[in-house]
Specification:
Blueprint (H helix, E strand, L loop, with lengths): L6 H9 L7 H7 L2 H4 L8 H16 L3 H21 L8 H24 L6 H11 L2 H8 L5 H4 L2 H11 L4 H13 L9 H13 L3 H13 L8 H9 L4 H16 L10
Helix pairs in contact: 1-4, 4-5, 5-6, 7-8, 10-11, 11-12, 12-13, 13-14, 13-15
Organism: Pseudoalteromonas maricaloris
Protein name: DUF2989 domain-containing protein
Length: about 270
């Protein structure tokens, strides 16, 4: 259960490494998965990913494939619903096809939700709670926190962090650290991990912690981290930022190398 698969990887999953299935082949075999989406060039990547995901779920309707399809449906719908607002003076059919794609995505998401109401799949449970306010689903997920499918999935861990951020800051920090522990070599964590850590530490006046992770965020390419308030706080306290910069550099390197260890006593 990882983040949305690339088109190449999705194709390999569908057809095998020796005979990669193309988008044209999918649309030829199952035209219904292509014809009810937008016909123009908008949302090209999202559309292609969705078509592969629909085909994969059709061939093997497992909860994992339904979860992957749901993610692709949301990504496509977000893109095409924006594109549908673009007016075409001479080519009205383009706007119409985008609206059709938007309606298709909504219909398919409703189908997936209805078909997975009794699922124990962690990702689907979170979607049922966060999108449909299904408290039973969230309770199921909370009771599965020791399940390896939950413990070892950074995406699900981040879902849990979003939930606990409203009720338990200490628990949220532990989960966010876990997300960083699970980060694979060469990958960059979701920027929300850093912004959440900085926010929590600043709120609790742990300015050294906040500054360190704000700098890690900057080193990771996150642009919307406001480091000035915490820098001013530390400067007014006479703290040496050079040491914290060195700590941030080491922390960043350990995360990028996939070797981060949660600093419980940090």
């Amino acid at each position: 259960m990882a983040f949305k698969k690339s088109l190449v990887f999705a194709a390999l999953l569908l057809a095998g490494c020796d005979d990669t299935l193309t988008l044209n082949q999918v649309c030829s075999e199952t035209p219904g998965f292509c014809e009810d989406l937008n016909k123009d060039s908008h949302c090209k990547d999202e559309r292609a990913s969705l078509i592969y995901a629909r085909y994969h779920e059709y061939k093997s309707p497992t909860d994992e494939n339904k979860y992957d399809l749901l993610q692709n449906l949301e990504s496509y719908n977000l893109c095409v619903s924006r594109a549908a607002k673009i007016e075409h003076i001479k080519l009205k059919e383009k706007t119409t096809s985008r609206v059709e794609g938007h309606l298709t995505a909504l219909k398919e998401m409703t189908r997936i939700y209805n078909e997975t109401k009794g699922s124990n799949h962690p990702g689907l449970l979170y979607y049922h709670w966060s999108r449909n306010n299904d408290r039973t689903a969230m309770n199921k997920l909370l009771n599965m926190q020791d399940d390896p499918r939950v413990q070892n999935d950074p995406e699900i861990q981040l879902f849990l962090a979003e939930f606990y951020a409203k009720v338990d800051d200490d628990k949220t920090v532990d989960i966010l650290y876990r997300v960083l522990e699970l980060n694979k070599r060469g990958h960059t964590p979701n920027p929300e991990v850093y912004s959440s850590l900085v926010s929590i530490f600043y709120k609790h006046e742990k300015y050294k912690h906040a500054y360190t992770f704000a700098r890690v965020a900057q080193l990771s390419g996150v642009e919307d981290i406001d480091i000035i308030p915490v820098t001013n706080q530390l400067a007014s306290m006479g703290k040496d930022l050079a040491n914290l910069d060195s700590l941030a550099q080491r922390t960043y390197e350990s995360i990028q190398a996939g070797e981060f260890v949660s600093p419980r006593d940090f």
